[in-house]
Amino acid sequence: MDIRILKEKILAGRQIEASEALVLARLDAAEQKELREAAAEITAHFHSRKFDTCSIVNARSGRCSENCKWCAQSAHYSTGVKEYELVDHDTCIDLALYNRSQGVGRFSFVTSGRRLGGKAFSTLLDYYRELNDRHSIYLCASMGLLDEEQLRQLREAGVKRYHCNLETAPSHFPSLCSTHSIDDKMATIRAARAAGLEICSGGIIGMGETMEQRAEFALKLREADPVSIPINILHPIPGTPLADAPALTPDEVLTTVAIFRMVHPRVVLRFAGGRDRLDVDTQKEAIRIGINGSIIGDLLTTIGSRIAEDKQMVADCGMEF
């Protein structure tokens, strides 16, 4: 494949074909380096030097009915994760205000379970209204497979973006979860868009998928049409079926980022969980070739990078936090 021709096609505003994206997953080492350079040029062409940031609070933890093999919060596995029904009001508000004071662009409540509902959902709606009305924070939400009416209520409470990860390629997902499907997730994404919300959707790499399946995953995300794609690197959790999954090499991560940038030239590619498994130089190279956003601070069930450290790394890469 002539990567230069493919790059020019993308720079001219055209999409690459599915067949072309799948070929990118089969490149040899020399071609992968050329691919990364093409991805870096595409990133520089379509994006500013501003680094897009968001933070989250794990507002409800554990006891999830779903059997996702990667997840510490699934009730199907014994992981020792903290379990609680809902974080209290002051903690939620204080975390949101702290992150805003540190210059973080967006804030989201994330809850365990197939779908948040009942009193817990109503309580978080109240928190969102307070943050929107009194503090003017850009708000996101991640609460599972909500229906359109719930999503409209979130929008009315001030939420602007809904997060629902597809997680992996359609051909690989059934081997990792049997209690819901990618079709279920796509239905939620369509409902969120109908409710007037932006879409954030990505997933996890390093769960036993092939590079071709990562390209397949990137292509499937076109249907979700997200403005933001979080890319998690699997952090194996003891007690889950993926506890012994081998770590990805830096080259595998960088090639994956480059493929995602070729398939999604205008979307924010966002580092999420697991990037602490990469050395700093690899993280900086990922930013150069395609990553232009991040979830920062503590994550869900693993510790993320600290805000001050992220600010320094972003500055080192010539980006504006």
Look at the helices and sheets and give the structural class.
Answer: alpha/beta
Shape: globular
What is the number of beta strands? Answer: 9
The Cα radius of gyration reads 19 Å
Strand order of the largest sheet: 5-4-3-2-1-9-8-7-6
Distance N to C terminus: 36 Å
How much of the sequence lies in strands comes to 5-15%
Low-pLDDT runs: 299-304
Explain this structure:
This protein has 321 residues and is of the alpha/beta class. 42% of the residues lie in helices and 14% in strands. The protein has a nine-stranded parallel β-sheet. Strand 8, helix 10 and strand 9 form a beta-alpha-beta unit. Helix 2 packs antiparallel against helix 8.
What is the fold's blueprint, element by element?
Elements: H1 3-11, H2 18-24, H3 29-46, E1 52-60, H4 89-101, E2 106-111, H5 118-135, E3 139-142, H6 148-156, E4 159-163, H7 182-194, E5 198-200, E6 203-205, H8 211-224, E7 228-233, H9 250-263, E8 268-271, H10 280-289, E9 291-295, H11 307-316
Parallel strand pairs: 1-2, 1-9, 2-3, 3-4, 4-5, 6-7, 7-8, 8-9
Helix pairs in contact: 1-3, 2-8, 3-9, 4-5, 8-9, 9-10
List keywords for this structure.
321 residues, alpha/beta, 9 strands
Overview in brief:
The chain has 321 residues and is α/β, with parallel strands linked by helices.
